[in-house]
Q: What sequence folds into this?
């Protein structure tokens, strides 16, 4: 099946799962789950096809419904959402896209969730040197209308070796560099949802282009790729 929409039935299943988050109910309804999972996977494949028309995606990852409860106080065995991520092409492009489907809490996200320490240091040094281009992109009206403000965890004062009084310390403190766009249930179930997701991902491209340039060059602007 080539699914270009998220179905009401799939949404209803997730709501029922939230009310009956136990192994007995899930086993009884596993056939239904598999059907909805296949529909959702097809929807994500459609997103992948759209993404590859204007970006280069190295891999798509669909997250399993089963929760790892070993270190969690919440012992419910199943996630009550569908989710998947799209990783951009390796060392050349970096970053990724994400989509979660959950009644009342659906969103797309894009950016850098857990940059390794070398990448994080490189980004911070760039922002220390000059953040004008970075701010110009993320503060552009058309960008903010879709993606809002830069999000992500950060350190409380200043990273080691950086001046806590630096004019760009608000950015330098970041450990994650992500953007999130939330969707209502009505928007997710609309026929236009696939287009809206793709539109969102297209709009993040100037940000990705800049970050790719930063992460593939040294502070002199020279390529560090082989």
A:
């Amino acid at each position: 099946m080539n699914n270009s929409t998220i179905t009401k039935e799939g949404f209803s299943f997730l709501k029922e799962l939230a009310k009956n988050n136990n192994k007995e109910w899930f086993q009884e309804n596993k056939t239904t789950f598999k059907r909805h999972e296949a529909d959702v996977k097809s929807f994500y494949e459609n997103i992948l096809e759209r993404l590859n028309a204007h970006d280069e995606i190295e891999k798509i990852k669909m997250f399993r419904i089963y929760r790892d409860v070993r270190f969690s106080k919440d012992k419910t065995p199943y996630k009550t959402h569908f989710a998947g991520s799209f990783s951009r092409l390796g060392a050349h492009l970096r970053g990724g896209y994400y989509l979660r489907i959950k009644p009342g809490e659906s969103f797309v996200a894009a950016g850098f969730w857990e940059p390794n320490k070398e990448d994080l240091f490189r980004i911070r040094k760039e922002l220390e040197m000059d953040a004008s281009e970075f701010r110009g992109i993320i503060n552009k009206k058309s960008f903010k209308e879709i993606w809002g403000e830069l999000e992500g965890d950060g350190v409380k004062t200043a990273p080691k070796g950086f001046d806590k009084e630096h004019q760009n310390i608000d950015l330098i403190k970041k450990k994650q560099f992500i953007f999130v766009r939330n969707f209502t249930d009505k928007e997710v179930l609309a026929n236009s949802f696939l287009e809206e997701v793709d539109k969102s991902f297209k709009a993040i491209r100037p940000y990705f282009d800049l970050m790719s340039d930063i992460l593939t060059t040294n502070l002199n602007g020279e390529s560090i790729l082989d």
